[in-house]
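Example with several molecule types.
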Amino acid sequence: MLERHAIGIVILAALLPMTFVPAAADMKYPDMQSQWRNPTAGRGGNPWDPNKPMGLGQQAPLTPEYQATFEASLKAQKEGSQGNSRGSTCEIAGMPKMMNFSERMEIVIRPNIVYFIPVQVPTRRIYTDGRTFPKDAPPTLGGYSIGRWIDEDGDGRYDVLEAETRNFKGPRVFESTGLPLHDDNQTIVKERIYLDKSNSDILHDEVTTIDNALTRPWTVDRIYLRVRKPIWIEKNCHESNPHLRIGDEEYFLSADGKLMPVSKGQLPPDLRYFEQAAR
Amino acid sequence: MLRTRCAMTCVGFLALLLADIALASAAAAQTYPDFESQWKTLNADRGDAWDPSKPPGLAQQPPLTPEYQAIFEASVRDQAAGGRGNNYKSSCVLDGMPRLMSLTAPMEILIEPRLTFFIFQNAFVRRIHTDGAPMPQDEPPSYQGHATGRWIDENGDGRYDALEVETRNFKGPRAFESSGLPLHNDNQTVVRERLALDKSNRDILHNVITTHDSALTRPWTVHKTYMRERNPRWEEYSCQPPPNAVFIGLGEYRLSPDQKLMPLRPGQPPPDLHYFRQPQK
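Resulting structure tokens for the full complex:
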């Protein structure tokens, strides 16, 4: 009889953790809370579709009008200008380009919000509290994101975060080649974010962009790699930015903080308002 | 006898498990104070005054060394003449510590066991390392510095009450406030903070900040107060220099209405153009 009691106690003890450990909180979300890095970052470019080369190699499904805009940007960049790219202004990229993450980012999950925390601004918030898109929010480059967690296999644990982002302003591009989005800013970005089934150190973000510059929705599968020993390096775009614009002219700043031409034979700026002659 | 021993073992096992579960529960949501929220400064009427009990600028009466008092006064004069003085924010140089904690825009706190995030609307995220690990030897200095913190249970009730933070490893230039109130350019600043909820109003967060810096004759302590915002809204922030300002190296210039470079002040020399081979237009 006593043995039966003892067995009962052991079973009870084994079951107790299942009852009291905070299953309703941390346990139901996938193991996404980590630092992540983009494997294509730091290789001299950051293609929107990571499986194809940047620029025309992306084979973006652009309308003829926006294909022409794109090709004009590429031509301007070849001649030393920035084209459609806004990177030289250090303006934030906005969606969907901000999911390129040229620097590492960290994901933090709370019941009502999922945070994508980059090294630089802005932190992206995906609201998962069931709210709808606000009617009075001013449009932004990053847009407004609402999401929902999906338990695809019914095991009581979420597998996928689905997010939808709207309410944009522009100009925005997909990548630094100047691959454009439509200037009506009616973009809708839909994402499915989930861990790789065979390797939980890989995070997928299937991004589908619906935009009037495109002939059809454009889906790419971006991946991020988990960083188990995170490091954070402060990096300010403005501090490391070698580009400078004076009026309509672009220049470089040298490492010693002096003005340089961007192209051979470029004239220096007009200094007529200075009393002293240039040194 | 055997049965009694077995029963005692099982009861002991159960007791241990219950203790583990109690600890696990305490270590989760119950451990930390209710900091997770959006916070705004309660001292917005003082602008970004470092000591919010005094107006910004010379009225701060900072305990500066004579050398740095002179630098400060020169900054105030330069700003009165239209310059930026020691306030480099206009060219989007990061505020850094301790100035960040004046909260000129909302901030959100997120607490993880190893890391507490201060997510600023208009600045880079600040990370307070609470895992007890030392600062990595090879971490480059930064405007924010490296922050290590520890949670304090002051009244022994099993719940943390305060977060104590120490921040080191800086680069510059940095200033306490937009008047250009300077920190020393040796960047050996040490900032100590103590954050705790108000005991009578849980929607008030106190941050007592003590700055140790070679520009100061003594440690300087100020008391910042933040107010919880229960219906947070966020604005998108992207630092951009003023549209008519041009920064070339440390030099500041202006853009004329006809889009040409012009001096900020009378007699200012033009920028160095020795990288251009052709004469100017």
